Amino acid sequence: MTSIGSNKDGFRFTEAIDINNQGLIVGISQFPSGAKRPFLWENGTIIGLGNLNGFTCQPMDINDQDQIIGSCLLDSDNNENKRYHPLQQSFVNRSILWHKGVMTDLGALSGGYTVASKINERGQIVGYSQFISDSNNEPHAFLWENGAMTDLGTLDRASIAVDINERGQVIGNSIVDSNQNHAVLWENGIMTDLGTLDNKPGSGSSAMDINKFGQVVGCSMLEKSNGDDSLIILHAFLWENGVMTDLGTLGGNESCAVAINDHGQIIGNSQTTAGEYRAFLWENGAMIDLGTLDSKRIIATAINNSGQIVGHKELREGSGKNYAFFWENGEIIDLGVLRNDSNKIFINENTQVIGTKYIPSKSLKRAVLWERK
Q1: What Å distances lie between residue 67 and 42, 45, 61, 62, CA to CA?
Q2: What is the mean pLDDT of residues 229-256?
Q3: Which of 105, 114, 221, 279 could form a disulfide with 300 if both were Cys (CB 3.0 to 4.6 A apart)?
Q4: Which SS3 state, helix, strand or coil, does residue 309 take?
């Protein structure tokens, strides 16, 4: 395990956010003064990415071309921006692209905030931007490429884009006229409503991930069979070629798929009959429980194309202590203690795993890299 940043480097803490297939890591560091700075880690060296106009920036994703996207809080004297973004008072969130030492502001659809979600290997970026000319000032999904931001539109109200594959297929979510969220796919300028598992009014769905073949995974609400409005029935789904398939659960009422690799292996999390939450792997039509790991709450967060899975577990219910894990072919390896609220565990195609480790004896958190020896 490699620790990224230390007190000797002048850092109070470091937090890992993403890693590409070359092993470059992006994250956030904090200095003793409390100031936060984005960083790129390469071959043992931390490189500061810099902030925009002196305000804090945070990286979100890095591709294999070393293009990094993130967001910065910009000061604004525009009273309209203050009014439309009251939670950030005089600050407006803008999306940023870092590449070869140059920081580019991606702009906005109509003057409001923007949030970049993902970048593919072609440099296409997706996210969402507040549409101030909209009567509700709600966000619209966008696609940014070659210096231009395109509004991807909505089903009825508001939309966000969450992922893009190498074919330029974009997935996200949009609100329909029933005021429910529906998973959507944008391709060649056309938006497709992926629908819901039961196709009934009042049901909703959310898209979480797309692979290179256009297979989409996420979760969808189902009609409450006993009429109890307080009971939530949520099932993981796989959508492909116009058909949404229910992946089921591990016995409880809830499941959600969070990622799919290019071999169609799906990971997610499900409630069991006992009400515990377990990570699952779905392949060849079957949902496999990844095991208890001596915990009642196990969360899978990422899978690579080798079928290696990472995630985190809570040691004891209510303890607040999370442990990272690595799963392969039925074998589980405990990677150690994470910061209490950490869920950013990711694995690349070279079995390099990143997370943020908590060091109880020093009350510190450090970005860490785990590599197979």
Answers
A1: 14, 18, 8, 6
A2: 90
A3: 279
A4: strand
What the block records as the tokens of 373 is 């020896």
Which amino acid belongs to residue 184?
A: V
Q: pLDDT, tens digit, for every residue of 282-301?
A: 999 999 999 866 666 788 99
Give the chain's length. 373
Q: Are the C-beta atoms of 152 and 109 separated by less than 8 Å?
A: no
Residue with tokens 């915990």: 295
Spatial contact of 305 and 262, defined as CB atoms under 8 Å apart: yes
- Single-letter code of the amino acid located at 65: Q
Task: Pick the more confident residue, 31 or 327.
Answer: 327
Whether the Cβ atoms of residue 365 and residue 36 lie closer than 8 Å to each other:
no
CA 5, CA 357: separation in Å to the nearest integer? 12
Give the Cα separation of 89 and 169 in Å (integer).
35
Given a cut of 80, is residue 37 above it in pLDDT?
yes
Residue range 75-90: average pLDDT?
A: 41
3-state secondary structure at position 339: coil
pTM: 0.90
Helix (H) or strand (E) holding 238: strand 234-240
The single-letter DSSP state of residue 84 is H
**152-160: long-range contacts (C-beta < 8 A, 24 or more apart)?**
152/186, 152/191, 153/191, 155/182, 155/184, 155/191, 155/193, 159/128, 159/184, 160/115, 160/117, 160/127, 160/128
Q: Is the pLDDT of residue 319 over 60?
A: no
Q: Which residues contact 373 (CB under 8 A, 6 or more apart)?
A: none
DSSP 85-151: -GGGTTEEEEEEEEETTEEEE---SSSS-EEEEEE-TT--EEEEEE-TTSTT--EEEEEEETTEEEE
Residue 371 has pLDDT above 70, yes or no: yes
> Where along the chain do its domains lie?
57-94+104-174+181-195
Q: 219 near 205, Cβ under 8 Å? A: yes
Q: Residue 293, Cα to own-chain centre: how many angstroms?
A: 24
Residue 155 identity (one-letter amino acid): L
